[in-house]
Amino acid sequence: MKLNLRIWRQKDTDTAGRFVTYQVDEVSPDMSFLEMLDVLNEDLIGRGEEPVAFEHDCREGICGSCGFVINGMPHGPRRHTTVCQLHMRFFKDGDCLTLEPWRAQAFPVVRDLVVDRSAFDRIIQAGGYITAPTGAAPEAGAILVPKEAADTAMDAATCIGCGACVAACPNAAAMLFTSAKITHLNSLPQGQPERDERTLNMTAAMALEDFGSCSNHAECEAACPKGIPLEFIAGLNRDLIRAAFHRHREPLAVVAAPRHPAHEDT
Ligand code: SF4
Ligand code: FES
Questions:
Q1: CA–centroid distance, residue 179 to ligand 1 (Å)
Q2: N or C: which end of the chain has fewer CB within 10 A?
Q3: Which residue numbers in the chain have pLDDT < 70?
Protein backbone atom coordinates (compact mmCIF):
# COMPACT_ATOMS: atom_id res chain seq x y z
CA MET A 1 0.00 0.00 0.00
CA LYS A 2 0.96 3.65 -0.51
CA LEU A 3 0.51 6.41 2.05
CA ASN A 4 0.71 10.17 1.98
CA LEU A 5 2.16 11.60 5.18
CA ARG A 6 2.05 15.22 6.38
CA ILE A 7 4.71 15.30 9.07
CA TRP A 8 5.62 18.11 11.46
CA ARG A 9 9.30 18.97 10.93
CA GLN A 10 10.99 21.17 13.51
CA LYS A 11 14.76 21.48 13.90
CA ASP A 12 14.77 22.30 17.61
CA THR A 13 12.77 23.96 20.37
CA ASP A 14 13.66 27.48 19.30
CA THR A 15 13.07 27.10 15.56
CA ALA A 16 9.62 27.36 13.99
CA GLY A 17 8.25 24.11 12.57
CA ARG A 18 6.13 23.29 9.52
CA PHE A 19 4.37 20.37 7.89
CA VAL A 20 6.22 18.56 5.08
CA THR A 21 4.48 16.04 2.81
CA TYR A 22 6.02 12.66 1.96
CA GLN A 23 4.83 9.62 0.05
CA VAL A 24 5.73 6.16 1.34
CA ASP A 25 5.46 3.21 -1.07
CA GLU A 26 5.56 -0.51 -0.43
CA VAL A 27 4.05 -0.37 3.04
CA SER A 28 3.16 -3.85 4.28
CA PRO A 29 -0.08 -4.22 6.30
CA ASP A 30 1.97 -6.26 8.80
CA MET A 31 4.33 -3.37 9.58
CA SER A 32 3.90 -1.40 12.76
CA PHE A 33 3.47 2.36 12.40
CA LEU A 34 7.05 2.90 13.56
CA GLU A 35 8.37 0.34 11.06
CA MET A 36 6.55 2.29 8.35
CA LEU A 37 8.40 5.43 9.55
CA ASP A 38 11.66 3.42 9.48
CA VAL A 39 11.00 2.77 5.78
CA LEU A 40 10.42 6.47 5.20
CA ASN A 41 13.62 7.36 7.10
CA GLU A 42 15.75 4.88 5.15
CA ASP A 43 14.46 6.50 1.97
CA LEU A 44 15.21 10.00 3.31
CA ILE A 45 18.72 9.00 4.41
CA GLY A 46 19.32 7.40 0.99
CA ARG A 47 18.40 10.73 -0.62
CA GLY A 48 20.70 12.66 1.74
CA GLU A 49 17.80 14.24 3.67
CA GLU A 50 17.31 14.47 7.44
CA PRO A 51 15.30 11.51 8.82
CA VAL A 52 12.16 12.22 10.85
CA ALA A 53 12.94 12.14 14.59
CA PHE A 54 10.53 10.09 16.71
CA GLU A 55 10.97 8.43 20.09
CA HIS A 56 10.81 4.70 20.72
CA ASP A 57 12.43 2.00 22.81
CA CYS A 58 10.56 -1.24 23.58
CA ARG A 59 8.16 -1.17 20.60
CA GLU A 60 5.98 -3.47 22.75
CA GLY A 61 3.66 -0.92 24.37
CA ILE A 62 5.38 -1.00 27.75
CA CYS A 63 8.09 1.69 27.97
CA GLY A 64 6.05 4.81 27.18
CA SER A 65 8.69 6.39 24.91
CA CYS A 66 6.70 6.47 21.72
CA GLY A 67 3.73 8.67 21.03
CA PHE A 68 2.64 11.39 18.68
CA VAL A 69 -0.63 12.59 17.22
CA ILE A 70 -2.03 10.86 14.11
CA ASN A 71 -4.92 12.67 12.41
CA GLY A 72 -5.69 14.56 15.61
CA MET A 73 -5.67 11.49 17.87
CA PRO A 74 -2.86 10.79 20.35
CA HIS A 75 -1.38 7.36 19.44
CA GLY A 76 -3.76 7.18 16.46
CA PRO A 77 -7.24 5.79 15.95
CA ARG A 78 -7.04 2.42 17.78
CA ARG A 79 -8.33 2.40 21.36
CA HIS A 80 -5.88 1.19 24.04
CA THR A 81 -3.03 0.97 21.52
CA THR A 82 0.33 2.73 21.62
CA VAL A 83 1.71 3.99 18.33
CA CYS A 84 4.40 1.27 18.37
CA GLN A 85 1.68 -1.38 18.55
CA LEU A 86 -0.47 0.23 15.87
CA HIS A 87 -0.29 -1.80 12.66
CA MET A 88 -0.66 -0.60 9.10
CA ARG A 89 -3.51 -3.04 8.42
CA PHE A 90 -5.75 -0.55 10.23
CA PHE A 91 -5.16 1.98 7.44
CA LYS A 92 -6.14 1.94 3.76
CA ASP A 93 -4.09 2.22 0.59
CA GLY A 94 -3.88 5.91 -0.37
CA ASP A 95 -4.66 7.23 3.12
CA CYS A 96 -3.43 10.72 3.94
CA LEU A 97 -2.16 10.92 7.53
CA THR A 98 -1.09 13.97 9.52
CA LEU A 99 1.59 13.34 12.14
CA GLU A 100 2.47 15.93 14.76
CA PRO A 101 4.06 15.96 18.22
CA TRP A 102 2.17 16.26 21.52
CA ARG A 103 0.96 19.88 21.71
CA ALA A 104 1.35 21.14 25.29
CA GLN A 105 3.33 23.98 26.80
CA ALA A 106 4.75 21.60 29.42
CA PHE A 107 6.11 19.33 26.65
CA PRO A 108 8.29 21.56 24.41
CA VAL A 109 9.20 20.08 21.04
CA VAL A 110 12.79 18.81 20.98
CA ARG A 111 12.79 17.85 17.31
CA ASP A 112 10.10 16.80 14.79
CA LEU A 113 7.83 14.36 16.71
CA VAL A 114 9.95 14.25 19.89
CA VAL A 115 8.93 16.30 22.93
CA ASP A 116 10.59 16.88 26.31
CA ARG A 117 8.52 15.04 28.94
CA SER A 118 10.88 15.70 31.85
CA ALA A 119 7.99 17.52 33.61
CA PHE A 120 6.63 14.02 34.33
CA ASP A 121 10.00 13.00 35.83
CA ARG A 122 9.88 15.96 38.24
CA ILE A 123 6.39 14.91 39.41
CA ILE A 124 7.67 11.38 40.07
CA GLN A 125 10.74 12.76 41.88
CA ALA A 126 8.46 14.64 44.28
CA GLY A 127 6.97 11.46 45.78
CA GLY A 128 6.82 8.45 43.48
CA TYR A 129 8.68 6.17 45.87
CA ILE A 130 8.38 4.32 49.18
CA THR A 131 10.90 4.09 51.98
CA ALA A 132 11.93 0.49 52.64
CA PRO A 133 14.65 -0.94 54.90
CA THR A 134 17.68 -2.29 53.11
CA GLY A 135 19.20 -5.69 53.85
CA ALA A 136 17.83 -9.16 53.26
CA ALA A 137 14.57 -9.47 51.34
CA PRO A 138 11.66 -9.52 53.83
CA GLU A 139 9.51 -12.62 54.21
CA ALA A 140 7.05 -12.58 51.29
CA GLY A 141 3.99 -12.85 53.54
CA ALA A 142 5.20 -10.35 56.15
CA ILE A 143 2.98 -7.57 54.77
CA LEU A 144 -0.42 -8.79 53.69
CA VAL A 145 -1.92 -6.93 50.72
CA PRO A 146 -5.70 -7.14 50.29
CA LYS A 147 -6.67 -8.43 46.83
CA GLU A 148 -8.67 -5.28 46.01
CA ALA A 149 -5.70 -3.05 46.91
CA ALA A 150 -3.32 -5.18 44.85
CA ASP A 151 -5.66 -5.03 41.84
CA THR A 152 -6.04 -1.23 42.09
CA ALA A 153 -2.29 -0.74 42.46
CA MET A 154 -1.64 -3.00 39.49
CA ASP A 155 -4.18 -1.14 37.32
CA ALA A 156 -2.57 2.18 38.25
CA ALA A 157 0.94 0.84 37.65
CA THR A 158 0.09 0.16 34.02
CA CYS A 159 0.49 3.89 33.30
CA ILE A 160 3.55 4.06 31.03
CA GLY A 161 4.04 7.83 31.29
CA CYS A 162 3.55 8.39 27.57
CA GLY A 163 1.85 11.79 27.88
CA ALA A 164 -1.12 11.09 25.60
CA CYS A 165 -3.47 12.20 28.40
CA VAL A 166 -1.86 15.64 28.42
CA ALA A 167 -1.91 15.87 24.62
CA ALA A 168 -5.61 14.95 24.48
CA CYS A 169 -6.74 17.34 27.23
CA PRO A 170 -7.96 20.76 26.02
CA ASN A 171 -6.29 22.21 29.14
CA ALA A 172 -3.13 20.08 28.77
CA ALA A 173 -3.69 18.85 32.34
CA ALA A 174 -1.55 16.07 33.82
CA MET A 175 -4.13 14.86 36.35
CA LEU A 176 -4.61 11.36 34.87
CA PHE A 177 -0.87 10.62 34.89
CA THR A 178 -0.36 12.07 38.39
CA SER A 179 -3.41 10.29 39.78
CA ALA A 180 -2.20 6.94 38.38
CA LYS A 181 1.23 7.35 39.98
CA ILE A 182 -0.24 8.44 43.32
CA THR A 183 -2.93 5.72 43.29
CA HIS A 184 -0.33 3.05 42.60
CA LEU A 185 1.59 3.65 45.84
CA ASN A 186 -1.25 5.05 47.97
CA SER A 187 -3.24 1.82 47.48
CA LEU A 188 -0.59 -0.44 48.99
CA PRO A 189 0.27 -0.98 52.68
CA GLN A 190 3.91 -0.23 51.83
CA GLY A 191 2.85 3.21 50.54
CA GLN A 192 0.96 4.31 53.67
CA PRO A 193 3.79 5.92 55.73
CA GLU A 194 4.35 8.58 53.04
CA ARG A 195 0.82 8.71 51.70
CA ASP A 196 -0.05 12.27 52.71
CA GLU A 197 3.35 13.77 51.88
CA ARG A 198 3.38 11.96 48.54
CA THR A 199 -0.05 13.25 47.59
CA LEU A 200 0.73 16.83 48.57
CA ASN A 201 4.22 16.92 47.05
CA MET A 202 3.38 15.26 43.75
CA THR A 203 0.32 17.45 43.28
CA ALA A 204 2.38 20.53 44.13
CA ALA A 205 5.10 19.46 41.68
CA MET A 206 2.44 19.06 39.00
CA ALA A 207 1.11 22.54 39.72
CA LEU A 208 4.61 24.01 39.31
CA GLU A 209 4.88 22.77 35.74
CA ASP A 210 3.11 24.30 32.74
CA PHE A 211 0.14 21.92 32.84
CA GLY A 212 -3.43 23.23 32.88
CA SER A 213 -6.16 22.34 35.35
CA CYS A 214 -8.55 19.42 35.06
CA SER A 215 -12.09 20.43 34.10
CA ASN A 216 -13.53 16.93 33.62
CA HIS A 217 -13.52 16.71 29.82
CA ALA A 218 -12.43 13.05 30.07
CA GLU A 219 -10.44 13.24 26.84
CA CYS A 220 -7.47 11.86 28.79
CA GLU A 221 -9.28 8.62 29.62
CA ALA A 222 -10.36 8.20 25.99
CA ALA A 223 -6.81 8.70 24.69
CA CYS A 224 -4.96 6.65 27.30
CA PRO A 225 -3.45 3.55 25.69
CA LYS A 226 -3.51 1.74 29.04
CA GLY A 227 -7.12 2.45 30.00
CA ILE A 228 -6.29 4.44 33.14
CA PRO A 229 -9.75 5.40 34.47
CA LEU A 230 -11.00 8.85 35.48
CA GLU A 231 -11.92 7.47 38.91
CA PHE A 232 -8.23 7.69 39.83
CA ILE A 233 -8.52 11.49 39.50
CA ALA A 234 -11.46 11.44 41.91
CA GLY A 235 -9.35 9.31 44.27
CA LEU A 236 -6.47 11.78 44.02
CA ASN A 237 -8.79 14.65 44.93
CA ARG A 238 -10.07 12.70 47.96
CA ASP A 239 -6.52 11.91 49.06
CA LEU A 240 -5.52 15.54 48.61
CA ILE A 241 -8.27 16.77 50.96
CA ARG A 242 -7.39 14.04 53.48
CA ALA A 243 -3.69 14.93 53.34
CA ALA A 244 -4.33 18.66 53.73
CA PHE A 245 -6.35 17.99 56.92
CA HIS A 246 -3.82 15.54 58.34
CA ARG A 247 -0.82 17.77 57.68
CA HIS A 248 -2.53 21.11 58.29
CA ARG A 249 -1.18 22.23 54.92
CA GLU A 250 -2.64 24.16 52.07
CA PRO A 251 -3.24 21.58 49.31
CA LEU A 252 -0.84 23.18 46.84
CA ALA A 253 1.81 24.51 49.26
CA VAL A 254 5.18 23.37 48.02
CA VAL A 255 7.46 21.47 50.37
CA ALA A 256 10.63 20.06 48.78
CA ALA A 257 9.04 19.66 45.37
CA PRO A 258 11.59 19.87 42.54
CA ARG A 259 11.10 23.05 40.54
CA HIS A 260 10.95 23.55 36.82
CA PRO A 261 14.02 25.59 35.76
CA ALA A 262 11.72 28.24 34.27
CA HIS A 263 10.20 28.89 37.71
CA GLU A 264 13.37 28.98 39.77
CA ASP A 265 13.39 32.76 40.27
CA THR A 266 9.70 33.11 41.13
S1 SF4 B 1 -2.32 8.01 32.16
FE2 SF4 B 1 -2.37 6.88 30.19
S3 SF4 B 1 -2.06 8.49 28.63
FE4 SF4 B 1 -1.40 9.35 30.60
S5 SF4 B 1 0.80 8.98 30.74
FE6 SF4 B 1 -0.24 7.24 31.77
S7 SF4 B 1 -0.47 5.70 30.15
FE8 SF4 B 1 -0.02 7.62 29.08
S1 FES C 1 8.14 2.16 22.10
FE2 FES C 1 7.78 1.49 24.17
S3 FES C 1 5.65 1.91 24.44
FE4 FES C 1 5.97 2.34 22.33
A1: 10
A2: C
A3: 249-266
